[in-house]
Please model this.
Amino acid sequence: MGTLYLVRHGQASFGAADYDQLSELGQRQAERLGAHWAERGQGFDAVLTGSLKRHTQTWAGIARGAGLDTEPLVWPGLNEYDSEAVIRAVMPRGHDATLGDPRSPEGYRAHFRLLRDGLGQWMAGTVSPVGMPTYTDFVQGITSALDHVRTHHQGQKVLLVSSGGPISTAVGHVLGLSPEATIDLNMRIRNSAVTVFQFSPKRHTLLTYNALPHLDQPHLADWITYA
Model:
């Protein structure tokens, strides 16, 4: 049996002009995860990442913290959906300004309420967000990475660095969950959280989801973030 560790990127820049950039805290989260693994002698035989900046920056932080120099395989199918495109697909025309600042409590709630609605409609095929693949193609990008791991890395330890959408989709695929349950998982995944699959040539099996073993200390409680 092999073991696949799926890590969501560290805290990005929610509400900024460029979300796809780790915050200072996001960098610390990634390095702390790497240090946690180094303390336990945890290494990896292979690393896969999406091609977004927050994915490569998270892997770089993990590698620094763990003292690793593995060259990652970049897998674009592990990239996140475009949340702004999803929201625009379901937002009534002319209502863009009503969202307000997404960093405010009201704007934050409005953002994620519309995102949940948009994801449900995208998954059902009733909306087609501009510039995004169909949901079927999005899932294929993720399952192709899982198939690659099963085919090429039997008996090995593999790290996969991605985003909340692909990771929750991978879990939903493995468990056969409904779209609604997959969205619920997506809304709750935390930055730098670790999800673990065990895999054989035939299948992946979920062991843990959304764990933060590297932040399980009282003085690190304020390092736990979601966006």
Summary: The chain has two domains: 2-80+133-223, 82-131. The first helix runs from residue 24 to 39. DSSP finds seven helices and six strands in the chain.
